[in-house]
Amino acid sequence: MQHKQMAQWQKNMYALWIGNFVTGAGASMSLPFLPLFISQMGHYPKWELTLYAGLAFSVTFLSQAVVSPLWGKLADRTGRKPMLLRAAVGMTITATLTGFSTNVWILIGLRLIQGAFSGYVNNAYALIASEVPMEQSGKTMGTLTTGSVGGQLIGPIIGGYIAGLFGFRIPFFIFGLLMLIASVVTGLFVKEDFVPADPRKAGAKASAFAGIKHVRIVWAMIVSSMLIQGATTSINPIISLFVKELMHAQGNIALASGVIAALPGIATLIAAPRLGALGDRIGPQRVLVAGLIFCGCVFLPMFFVTTVMMLGILRFLVGISDAALLPVTQTVMTLNTPQEAVSRIFSYNQSAQAIGSVIGPMLASGVAGVLDYRYVFLMTTGLVLINLAVVVWAYRTDPVASVN
């Protein structure tokens, strides 16, 4: 019986890996050249273009931050599979409609609606976290991460190539098609034996944090997720504009931006399962702290880059630090959260990540508009240092959790 149960969670993981992959590919397909798409919709000065680019990127995550806890609560009552289908179908419709945008405000509005229906990857994490054996959680979360990261790696390159040939609208239609594939794969191949918590039990109505032994650690992971996401997404509104500046407006800027956006994914793809397994052996705390220190050491030199090649090498190294960060925070939460609260905790984490994805790009848009694109990397380094301080403080004040 145990063997059969193991086989089913593994089947779920493979199906959700495919779902994560196409979600990551579709969502990232249009992001590197979003500012270039917006610049075709009107003649905007630099400050206005960076503001609209920041808004168009951030509003998706703003609505996601607001609705995620509501979806998480519902998931703890109905199961994670209905939430996966809701996200996949919702994004199929909104992504396709975005391709028909005629002005910047329609684009921003549709991305706002898309955020309210998103959350596929986070629900995939929550479903697997509720099923995976504890001793394999680090490796499994790392493997699941390679799905969305692999998609994020290939998406910008394909999107940049297609946009260069056929225009900026086509990648949105492909995003819609990919989410349709995610809907079908999830509907047919993900099986969930979900038993809702008994509403009469104290734990079902209590706060999601009620049964957590190391509350400070879990909160630190949620804050850490927000800051990691803020740091890694801060470059998104300005990446194509910075690449254009480095290339002196010569050549296929959309494709070059896609490659630069995708490079961290290559490193994360290689490193995430290995660092997850390493966390299972030596403890996720050490991997997380080392990842944050390395992250700061990589972001700082970006301030000084003068060529696309230098930017690309440093972006690749960022991918290694990413592999040591988000999957590890997911693992720590999995180890410290009781079954009946796992969807709610993961939804709070998704909200935190979404808030990071709002704060990072909006701060970056402001910094780039007032100072220059390269000052964004100094701001990002600051976010990483704050993150390191939060994690070290949490483990110092709650030392028992460091043995998990």
Automatic annotation (TrEMBL):
Keywords, sorted A to Z: Cell membrane, Membrane, Transmembrane, Transmembrane helix, Transport
Subcellular location: Cell membrane
Pfam families tied to this protein: MFS_1
Bilayer-spanning residue ranges: 12-38, 50-71, 83-108, 170-190, 217-241, 253-275, 287-318, 375-395
InterPro entries tied to this protein: MFS, MFS_dom, MFS_trans_sf, Tet-R_TetA/multi-R_MdtG-like
UniProt main location, coarse: membrane
Gene3D superfamilies from the UniProt entry: MFS general substrate transporter like domains (1.20.1250.20)
Chain ranges of the Major facilitator superfamily (MFS) profile domain: 12-399
Bilayer topology annotation: Multi-pass membrane protein
PANTHER family: MULTIDRUG RESISTANCE PROTEIN MDTG (PTHR43414:SF6)
Protein name: Multidrug resistance protein
Organism: Furfurilactobacillus curtus
